[in-house]
Design brief:
about 20% strand, 10 strands, about 45% helix, EAL domain-containing protein, binds ligand C2E, alpha/beta, binds calcium ion
Protein backbone atom coordinates (compact mmCIF):
# COMPACT_ATOMS: atom_id res chain seq x y z
CA UNK A 1 0.00 0.00 0.00
CA UNK A 2 1.27 3.43 -0.93
CA UNK A 3 0.60 6.52 1.17
CA UNK A 4 -0.73 8.56 -1.74
CA UNK A 5 -3.34 5.95 -2.53
CA UNK A 6 -5.69 5.86 0.42
CA UNK A 7 -7.90 3.32 -1.32
CA UNK A 8 -5.16 0.74 -1.33
CA UNK A 9 -5.18 0.93 2.48
CA UNK A 10 -8.84 0.18 2.49
CA UNK A 11 -8.28 -2.73 0.20
CA UNK A 12 -5.55 -4.08 2.43
CA UNK A 13 -7.66 -3.65 5.58
CA UNK A 14 -10.53 -5.48 3.96
CA UNK A 15 -8.34 -8.35 2.89
CA UNK A 16 -6.93 -8.66 6.37
CA UNK A 17 -10.31 -8.40 7.94
CA UNK A 18 -11.67 -11.06 5.64
CA UNK A 19 -8.87 -13.44 6.35
CA UNK A 20 -9.27 -12.92 10.10
CA UNK A 21 -13.00 -13.50 9.83
CA UNK A 22 -12.42 -16.63 7.77
CA UNK A 23 -10.02 -17.94 10.41
CA UNK A 24 -12.39 -17.18 13.25
CA UNK A 25 -15.20 -18.90 11.39
CA UNK A 26 -13.05 -21.92 10.85
CA UNK A 27 -12.13 -22.04 14.53
CA UNK A 28 -15.76 -22.08 15.54
CA UNK A 29 -16.53 -24.66 12.82
CA UNK A 30 -13.69 -26.83 14.14
CA UNK A 31 -15.08 -26.62 17.69
CA UNK A 32 -18.43 -27.68 16.32
CA UNK A 33 -16.75 -30.51 14.40
CA UNK A 34 -15.08 -31.80 17.57
CA UNK A 35 -18.37 -31.79 19.46
CA UNK A 36 -20.32 -33.39 16.63
CA UNK A 37 -17.90 -36.11 15.58
CA UNK A 38 -17.28 -34.78 12.10
CA UNK A 39 -13.80 -36.25 11.78
CA UNK A 40 -12.84 -39.54 10.25
CA UNK A 41 -9.53 -41.33 9.89
CA UNK A 42 -8.53 -42.72 6.51
CA UNK A 43 -5.81 -45.34 6.26
CA UNK A 44 -3.09 -45.70 3.68
CA UNK A 45 -1.19 -49.00 3.49
CA UNK A 46 2.52 -49.19 4.19
CA UNK A 47 3.91 -51.90 1.95
CA UNK A 48 6.99 -54.13 2.30
CA UNK A 49 8.52 -53.70 -1.16
CA UNK A 50 10.28 -57.05 -1.49
CA UNK A 51 7.18 -59.13 -0.64
CA UNK A 52 4.46 -56.68 -1.72
CA UNK A 53 2.66 -57.20 1.61
CA UNK A 54 0.89 -54.66 3.78
CA UNK A 55 2.68 -54.29 7.10
CA UNK A 56 0.86 -51.29 8.50
CA UNK A 57 -1.08 -48.14 7.77
CA UNK A 58 -0.77 -44.42 8.22
CA UNK A 59 -3.85 -42.74 9.69
CA UNK A 60 -4.79 -39.49 7.92
CA UNK A 61 -7.55 -37.24 9.18
CA UNK A 62 -10.53 -36.06 7.14
CA UNK A 63 -13.26 -33.57 8.04
CA UNK A 64 -16.86 -34.11 6.92
CA UNK A 65 -18.19 -30.59 6.74
CA UNK A 66 -21.63 -29.88 5.26
CA UNK A 67 -21.46 -32.85 2.94
CA UNK A 68 -17.94 -32.27 1.67
CA UNK A 69 -14.64 -33.78 2.68
CA UNK A 70 -12.06 -31.25 3.78
CA UNK A 71 -8.40 -32.29 3.46
CA UNK A 72 -6.10 -31.77 6.46
CA UNK A 73 -3.90 -29.15 4.80
CA UNK A 74 -6.91 -26.83 4.86
CA UNK A 75 -7.64 -27.06 8.56
CA UNK A 76 -4.65 -28.48 10.47
CA UNK A 77 -2.77 -25.14 10.34
CA UNK A 78 -5.76 -23.33 11.89
CA UNK A 79 -6.16 -26.12 14.44
CA UNK A 80 -2.50 -25.67 15.33
CA UNK A 81 -2.67 -21.88 15.68
CA UNK A 82 -5.76 -22.06 17.85
CA UNK A 83 -4.57 -24.94 20.02
CA UNK A 84 -7.55 -27.07 18.95
CA UNK A 85 -5.05 -29.57 17.55
CA UNK A 86 -4.59 -30.86 21.10
CA UNK A 87 -8.18 -32.01 21.28
CA UNK A 88 -8.28 -33.21 17.67
CA UNK A 89 -4.95 -34.97 18.12
CA UNK A 90 -6.24 -36.84 21.18
CA UNK A 91 -9.18 -38.09 19.14
CA UNK A 92 -6.80 -39.16 16.35
CA UNK A 93 -4.61 -41.14 18.76
CA UNK A 94 -7.61 -42.83 20.41
CA UNK A 95 -9.24 -43.74 17.14
CA UNK A 96 -6.04 -45.03 15.53
CA UNK A 97 -5.24 -47.21 18.59
CA UNK A 98 -8.78 -48.57 18.62
CA UNK A 99 -8.60 -49.45 14.93
CA UNK A 100 -5.17 -51.07 15.20
CA UNK A 101 -6.37 -53.17 18.17
CA UNK A 102 -9.25 -54.30 15.98
CA UNK A 103 -6.86 -55.44 13.23
CA UNK A 104 -4.98 -57.59 15.75
CA UNK A 105 -8.23 -59.18 16.92
CA UNK A 106 -9.31 -60.18 13.44
CA UNK A 107 -6.01 -61.90 12.80
CA UNK A 108 -3.91 -59.18 11.18
CA UNK A 109 -1.25 -59.69 13.82
CA UNK A 110 1.63 -57.26 13.87
CA UNK A 111 -0.02 -54.70 11.60
CA UNK A 112 1.18 -51.28 12.76
CA UNK A 113 -0.53 -47.91 12.76
CA UNK A 114 1.23 -44.58 12.20
CA UNK A 115 -0.16 -41.32 13.60
CA UNK A 116 0.91 -37.81 12.57
CA UNK A 117 1.77 -35.46 15.42
CA UNK A 118 1.94 -31.69 15.34
CA UNK A 119 4.77 -29.98 17.26
CA UNK A 120 2.03 -28.11 19.15
CA UNK A 121 1.00 -31.38 20.81
CA UNK A 122 4.33 -31.47 22.67
CA UNK A 123 3.86 -28.04 24.27
CA UNK A 124 1.73 -28.99 27.27
CA UNK A 125 3.89 -31.93 28.26
CA UNK A 126 1.02 -34.38 28.78
CA UNK A 127 1.22 -36.10 25.38
CA UNK A 128 2.85 -39.31 26.74
CA UNK A 129 0.07 -39.60 29.34
CA UNK A 130 -2.63 -39.39 26.66
CA UNK A 131 -0.88 -41.87 24.45
CA UNK A 132 -0.27 -44.40 27.24
CA UNK A 133 -3.90 -44.09 28.25
CA UNK A 134 -5.09 -44.87 24.72
CA UNK A 135 -2.74 -47.85 24.43
CA UNK A 136 -3.99 -49.20 27.72
CA UNK A 137 -7.63 -48.61 26.92
CA UNK A 138 -7.43 -50.77 23.81
CA UNK A 139 -4.77 -53.11 25.16
CA UNK A 140 -2.49 -52.26 22.23
CA UNK A 141 1.20 -53.21 22.19
CA UNK A 142 3.20 -49.92 22.09
CA UNK A 143 5.45 -51.49 19.47
CA UNK A 144 2.53 -51.37 17.04
CA UNK A 145 2.24 -47.60 17.31
CA UNK A 146 4.42 -45.34 15.22
CA UNK A 147 4.42 -41.59 15.74
CA UNK A 148 5.31 -39.40 12.77
CA UNK A 149 7.06 -36.17 13.62
CA UNK A 150 8.83 -33.64 11.43
CA UNK A 151 12.28 -32.16 11.65
CA UNK A 152 10.76 -28.81 12.65
CA UNK A 153 10.12 -30.27 16.10
CA UNK A 154 13.87 -30.16 16.75
CA UNK A 155 14.61 -26.66 15.56
CA UNK A 156 14.80 -25.14 18.98
CA UNK A 157 16.40 -28.20 20.51
CA UNK A 158 13.90 -28.25 23.34
CA UNK A 159 14.70 -30.61 26.18
CA UNK A 160 11.07 -31.12 27.09
CA UNK A 161 10.40 -32.45 23.58
CA UNK A 162 13.26 -34.92 23.82
CA UNK A 163 12.15 -35.96 27.27
CA UNK A 164 8.64 -36.78 26.12
CA UNK A 165 9.95 -38.69 23.12
CA UNK A 166 12.32 -40.61 25.36
CA UNK A 167 9.55 -41.62 27.77
CA UNK A 168 7.45 -42.91 24.89
CA UNK A 169 10.33 -44.62 23.06
CA UNK A 170 11.26 -46.45 26.28
CA UNK A 171 7.85 -48.09 26.26
CA UNK A 172 8.45 -49.34 22.73
CA UNK A 173 6.64 -46.69 20.71
CA UNK A 174 8.38 -46.07 17.38
CA UNK A 175 9.19 -42.68 15.89
CA UNK A 176 9.39 -41.83 12.22
CA UNK A 177 10.77 -38.61 10.75
CA UNK A 178 8.16 -37.50 8.24
CA UNK A 179 8.98 -35.54 5.06
CA UNK A 180 12.63 -36.35 5.61
CA UNK A 181 15.00 -34.23 3.54
CA UNK A 182 12.82 -31.14 3.26
CA UNK A 183 13.39 -29.47 6.58
CA UNK A 184 16.02 -28.61 9.05
CA UNK A 185 19.49 -29.14 7.68
CA UNK A 186 21.29 -29.93 10.92
CA UNK A 187 20.97 -33.67 11.32
CA UNK A 188 22.42 -33.77 14.78
CA UNK A 189 19.03 -34.40 16.32
CA UNK A 190 19.13 -37.87 14.78
CA UNK A 191 21.96 -38.81 17.10
CA UNK A 192 20.31 -37.54 20.25
CA UNK A 193 17.02 -39.35 20.12
CA UNK A 194 15.92 -42.78 19.10
CA UNK A 195 14.11 -42.45 15.79
CA UNK A 196 13.37 -45.76 14.13
CA UNK A 197 12.38 -44.68 10.65
CA UNK A 198 13.05 -42.08 7.96
CA UNK A 199 10.17 -41.34 5.63
CA UNK A 200 11.61 -40.07 2.36
CA UNK A 201 9.56 -37.08 1.27
CA UNK A 202 7.41 -37.60 -1.78
CA UNK A 203 8.84 -34.54 -3.52
CA UNK A 204 11.97 -36.66 -4.15
CA UNK A 205 10.11 -39.84 -4.96
CA UNK A 206 7.14 -39.03 -7.17
CA UNK A 207 9.06 -38.03 -10.29
CA UNK A 208 12.42 -39.55 -9.49
CA UNK A 209 12.51 -41.77 -12.59
CA UNK A 210 12.76 -38.67 -14.78
CA UNK A 211 15.00 -36.75 -12.47
CA UNK A 212 18.58 -37.84 -11.73
CA UNK A 213 19.01 -35.20 -8.99
CA UNK A 214 16.05 -36.54 -7.08
CA UNK A 215 17.35 -40.07 -7.49
CA UNK A 216 20.67 -39.01 -5.98
CA UNK A 217 18.86 -37.58 -2.99
CA UNK A 218 16.75 -40.72 -2.57
CA UNK A 219 19.93 -42.83 -2.82
CA UNK A 220 21.68 -40.74 -0.22
CA UNK A 221 18.77 -40.95 2.23
CA UNK A 222 18.52 -44.73 1.80
CA UNK A 223 22.27 -45.13 2.37
CA UNK A 224 22.13 -42.87 5.38
CA UNK A 225 19.25 -44.80 6.90
CA UNK A 226 21.19 -48.04 6.53
CA UNK A 227 24.37 -46.65 8.06
CA UNK A 228 22.38 -45.30 10.99
CA UNK A 229 20.41 -48.53 11.32
CA UNK A 230 17.08 -46.85 10.67
CA UNK A 231 14.19 -48.17 8.66
CA UNK A 232 13.13 -46.27 5.56
CA UNK A 233 9.81 -45.66 3.85
CA UNK A 234 9.41 -43.95 0.50
CA UNK A 235 6.29 -41.77 0.28
CA UNK A 236 4.42 -40.89 -2.87
CA UNK A 237 5.10 -44.04 -4.90
CA UNK A 238 2.70 -43.72 -7.80
CA UNK A 239 3.76 -46.48 -10.22
CA UNK A 240 5.31 -49.91 -10.32
CA UNK A 241 8.59 -48.85 -11.93
CA UNK A 242 9.27 -46.43 -9.11
CA UNK A 243 8.51 -49.17 -6.57
CA UNK A 244 10.95 -51.50 -8.34
CA UNK A 245 13.63 -48.86 -8.59
CA UNK A 246 13.28 -48.09 -4.88
CA UNK A 247 13.62 -51.76 -4.00
CA UNK A 248 16.76 -51.99 -6.15
CA UNK A 249 18.19 -48.99 -4.32
CA UNK A 250 17.72 -50.71 -0.97
CA UNK A 251 14.53 -49.05 0.16
CA UNK A 252 12.48 -51.39 2.35
CA UNK A 253 8.96 -49.93 2.56
CA UNK A 254 6.75 -47.80 0.34
CA UNK A 255 3.52 -45.86 0.49
CA UNK A 256 1.60 -44.30 -2.34
CA UNK A 257 -1.19 -44.28 -4.86
CA UNK A 258 0.43 -47.22 -6.68
CA UNK A 259 -0.95 -49.45 -3.90
CA UNK A 260 -3.76 -47.28 -2.60
CA UNK A 261 -4.69 -43.75 -1.62
CA UNK A 262 -5.82 -43.28 2.01
CA UNK A 263 -9.22 -45.01 2.36
CA UNK A 264 -11.93 -45.32 5.06
CA UNK A 265 -11.43 -48.09 7.63
CA UNK A 266 -13.87 -50.57 6.07
CA UNK A 267 -12.29 -50.19 2.68
CA UNK A 268 -8.84 -50.61 4.24
CA UNK A 269 -10.01 -53.91 5.77
CA UNK A 270 -11.12 -55.11 2.34
CA UNK A 271 -7.74 -54.15 0.94
CA UNK A 272 -6.02 -56.12 3.70
CA UNK A 273 -8.02 -59.24 2.93
CA UNK A 274 -7.36 -58.83 -0.78
CA UNK A 275 -3.60 -58.66 -0.19
CA UNK A 276 -3.70 -61.53 2.31
CA UNK A 277 -5.38 -63.76 -0.27
CA UNK A 278 -3.18 -62.73 -3.17
P1 LIG B 1 1.82 -36.42 5.29
O1 LIG B 1 1.87 -36.95 6.67
O2 LIG B 1 3.10 -36.20 4.59
O3 LIG B 1 0.86 -37.40 4.50
C1 LIG B 1 1.04 -37.79 3.16
C2 LIG B 1 0.07 -37.10 2.24
O4 LIG B 1 0.33 -37.50 0.91
C3 LIG B 1 -1.40 -37.45 2.49
O5 LIG B 1 -2.19 -36.30 2.21
C4 LIG B 1 -1.65 -38.53 1.44
O6 LIG B 1 -2.99 -38.63 1.05
C5 LIG B 1 -0.79 -38.04 0.31
N1 LIG B 1 -0.33 -39.13 -0.57
C6 LIG B 1 -0.14 -40.42 -0.23
N2 LIG B 1 0.33 -41.12 -1.29
C7 LIG B 1 0.44 -40.26 -2.32
C8 LIG B 1 0.88 -40.40 -3.68
O7 LIG B 1 1.25 -41.46 -4.15
N3 LIG B 1 0.88 -39.25 -4.43
C9 LIG B 1 0.48 -38.05 -3.94
N4 LIG B 1 0.50 -37.01 -4.75
N5 LIG B 1 0.06 -37.88 -2.64
C10 LIG B 1 0.05 -38.98 -1.84
P2 LIG B 1 -3.32 -35.82 3.20
O8 LIG B 1 -4.05 -37.01 3.74
O9 LIG B 1 -4.09 -34.77 2.48
O10 LIG B 1 -2.52 -35.18 4.40
C11 LIG B 1 -1.75 -34.02 4.25
C12 LIG B 1 -0.95 -33.70 5.49
O11 LIG B 1 -1.83 -33.35 6.57
C13 LIG B 1 -0.16 -34.88 6.02
O12 LIG B 1 1.01 -35.01 5.26
C14 LIG B 1 0.07 -34.47 7.45
O13 LIG B 1 1.14 -33.58 7.56
C15 LIG B 1 -1.22 -33.73 7.79
N6 LIG B 1 -2.09 -34.63 8.55
C16 LIG B 1 -2.94 -35.59 8.11
N7 LIG B 1 -3.57 -36.20 9.13
C17 LIG B 1 -3.12 -35.60 10.26
C18 LIG B 1 -3.38 -35.79 11.67
O14 LIG B 1 -4.16 -36.66 12.10
N8 LIG B 1 -2.72 -34.97 12.53
C19 LIG B 1 -1.82 -34.03 12.10
N9 LIG B 1 -1.20 -33.26 13.02
N10 LIG B 1 -1.54 -33.84 10.79
C20 LIG B 1 -2.19 -34.62 9.89
CA1 LIG C 1 2.87 -38.54 7.70
CA1 LIG D 1 9.51 -50.44 19.25
CA1 LIG E 1 5.08 -37.03 4.58
Amino acid sequence: AKEDEPNSYHFYDNEMEQSIVRRLNMISDLKHAIEHDQFELFYQPKVHLASNTIVGAEALIRWHKDGSLIPPNEFIPVAEESGLINEIGKWVIETACKECAKWQKIGMKGLTVAVNLSPVQFKRGNLPTHIFRALQKYNLDPNLLELEITESLFIDNADHVKQQIHIMAEKGINFAIDDFGTGYSNLNYLTTFNASTLKIDMSFVRHMLNNPQQQHIVNAIIKMSRVMDLENVAEGVEDEQTAQELLAKGCVYGQGYFWSPPVPSDKFLRLLKQYANA
